[in-house]
Design goal:
There is one protein chain. By secondary structure, the protein is an all-alpha fold. The protein has a domain of 52 residues. It is built from four helices and no strands. Helix 1 packs across helix 3 and helix 2 packs antiparallel against helix 3. The radius of gyration is 30 Å and the shape is flat.
Length: 123
Amino acid sequence: MGRGGLRSTSFKKGCRGNPGGKPKNLPAVEARKIVADIKAAAREYTAEALEKVVAIMRSPKSPPASALGAATQILDRGWGKSREAVDHTVRTTLEELVYESYRLRDKSPAPLEPPLIEARKLP
């Protein structure tokens, strides 16, 4: 079929796809309360989740990946995921990085002075 015209997925005349309109967002206070309730409920199962993880760890039988995944999810939701430390100290300027990329590309020694870049006038 061409670019225009009606398609089987087009709205019929007088009928719209979302008659109720956009759903109203939850106020921030209610959202925080829901998150706090979920965390509190998950923390109630912490001991059971730890027992499950230990049982899986000690089990010589087949790996019950789904049970371990569920226990991990309960622990993550109740206590949060562990944080990963990242050292992000940068002591190189953008100019030095550009010069280094050109030097590596050309495989020539680094210049003693930066190259002179002249601006051209447009006609």
